Amino acid sequence: MLILRHQRGFSLIELMIGIAIVAILLAVGMPTFGLWMQNTQVRTAAESIQNGLQTARNEAVRRNTNVRFNLTSATGLVTWNVCVVVGAACGEVIQQRSAAEGGANARVGISTDVPPTPVPNTQYATALAAGAGLSGAGGAGVTFNGVGSIPAANIGTDITRIDIINALANDARRLVIVVGTGGLVRMCDPLHALASNPQGCS
């Protein structure tokens, strides 16, 4: 004997309730997801710069000669190169990063003060609103000598601090890379103090 079984699916009301719940969850999560994406661009740019600085230092020690890390964008874009110093100029390029790589919203600002001076977010916001580049970024850099430290003649003129922000989102995270005179390169978060958090800036 054949037994008929009825398959029960979703009613139209149940389907509409499910769609409404998904829509509400997406509406709540989108701003957080957008901020996460902007923070990721800042993190990627900061890691790229940190890697470039470490490459320059390692190559200087390996070659036992002066090697320079240069920020190459006058408008604060995250572009850089690492090159062997020949006389007072940049010779053989070892590695470089173009503006087309990574996120387009990350911007850099620098300090050459010893010790490095903290730079407030308002300075960046003002420069970006005026359509100007972040001052001093283009052509600035750090030279490492054969023992991995900064030559005495360059202290006070080479970069000691690089701030990375997001030009699109004012509430995005800001990261800082500090370069010590001994050549140590360190990334930190300016929202935290070094005394209370190992990821904090001094």
TrEMBL record:
Keywords: Cell inner membrane, Cell membrane, Membrane, Methylation, Transmembrane, Transmembrane helix. Pfam families: GspH, N_methyl. It is a single-pass membrane protein. GO terms for cellular component: plasma membrane; type II protein secretion system complex. Belongs to the GSP H family. One of its GO terms (biological process) is protein secretion by the type II secretion system. Residues 45-182 form the General secretion pathway GspH domain. InterPro entries: N_methyl_site, Pilin-like, T2SS_GspH. The keyword Transcription does not apply. It is found in: Cell inner membrane. The chain crosses the membrane at residues 12-37. Its main location: membrane. This is Type II secretion system protein H.
